[in-house]
Write a structure and sequence with these properties.
The protein is an alpha/beta fold and about 220 residues long. Helix content is about 35%, strand content about 20%. The N and C termini lie close together (about 10 Å).
Length: about 220
């Protein structure tokens, strides 16, 4: 079953608790939390205290995406705040293997993210160690961008690798996913869809999830 992870980057922060509760009631599977530091990406978002508050507001797993330089400095803090999954960028980690195991040693699932132009070759010696790979389908840093079509081929290639190796690794896709292109992303092999503005800017969250799930065989 393909999972849907609404990204609170596009939520109304003036009523974040209510937004998360509504997403949960609509049938969301995870809550995706984008952490930006103003260095790895140009935007700045939230820190561990807000993640801790989000954890209190929802029973759904927290899928925490660290779009930050030197993520090792903050893994402890985000793990203690209640993250169920911590994703770090291959482009931002000097010692990726060590960082992945550092996350796992905190009792949290570990994932690695690749920017649109980053080759899957980066995963050659780490894929067997992670719980998930997050493929960015936009350049990270801002919500509301359009899906990069070449990502579909990248998803297919990664799915083939995972199947050939018989790894238990999920593929998550983040950026520009909406009810119109979700079917193509699912068909390509995605296991988790991150939805930002297409979800939180909709009038009815449950209808968005219903429209996406109709593509799932």
């Amino acid at each position: 079953m393909v999972k849907i992870a609404p990204s609170i980057l596009s939520a109304d922060f003036s009523k974040l608790g209510d937004e998360i509760k509504e997403a949960e009631e609509a049938g969301a599977d995870l809550i995706h939390v984008d952490i930006m530091d103003g260095h790895f990406v140009p935007n700045i978002t939230i820190g561990p205290p807000v993640v801790k508050s989000i954890k209190k507001a929802s029973t759904l797993p927290l899928d925490v995406h660290l779009m930050i330089d030197d993520p090792d400095r903050y893994i402890d803090a985000f793990a203690k705040a209640g993250s169920d999954m911590i994703t770090i960028h291959a482009e931002a980690s000097v010692h990726l293997n060590r960082s992945i195991h550092y996350i796992k040693n905190n009792g949290v699932k570990a994932a690695v993210s690749l920017n649109p132009a980053t080759s899957l070759d980066v995963l050659d010696f780490i894929l067997s160690e992670v719980d998930m790979v997050l493929l960015m389908s936009v350049n990270p840093g801002f919500g509301g961008q359009e899906f990069i079509p070449q990502t579909l081929y990248k998803i297919k290639r990664l799915k083939d690798i995972i199947r050939d190796k018989k790894y238990n690794v999920d593929i998550e896709v983040d950026g520009g996913i909406n009810t119109h292109n979700a079917g193509d992303v699912i068909k390509a092999g995605a296991d988790i869809l991150v939805m930002g503005s297409a979800f939180f800017h909709a009038d009815n969250y449950a209808e968005v999830i219903k429209a996406v799930r109709k593509h799932i065989q």
